[in-house]
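Handoff note, outgoing to incoming analyst
You'll be picking up this chain. Sequence as last confirmed:
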Amino acid sequence: MLKSLLISAIAILGIKASSLTYTTSDTISTILEQSKEHPAQWEDAYHTSLTSLTLDDFLDHTGSLFASADFDQNNVLDTDEYATFMVVKAEMAHLNGFLAIEVNNKAYKLPLHLSTNSQSMDKFERTRIDALARTNFYTSAGNDQALSQTEFLSNARKMFDQADKNLNGILKGKELKTFTKNQSPLMPFSQI
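Most recent structure output, in case you need it:
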């Protein structure tokens, strides 16, 4: 059904990871500019804020994100695929003021309570996020320097577990806000 908005620009254009390099500023700007021509079905996709999130729903969503970020479809993410994914995720959050999440084939938003900006991030912000993403990649990928879906989901689970203070497998209220706030290291510097 609907792809998460944070990667819709890449999905629409069918961008291959090989065309995206460390210097992605122009490429990301082009992707975001062309993404304005997205299908009409996405116009109303993210009106509803998510009020609770289960671990299973989050892991299902994260698995879909992995598949979308794996541009060469080799079942692992390389450094460029991961960094590009994170830069686009941050850019979309910057522009929209929320993280997009899909639960049971329905699109929701997790408000970031940040000021939205109709302009793309500047080169400094993209470079900073790219560097953070690459650091995160190298600490998560292991010796093979490839991030498997298992490793990707393991990182997602750790992030969920950090916010799930009562250990019930469901994030609500303050836990959900904490979870969303923990996304901020890869958010634009001006909005942290």
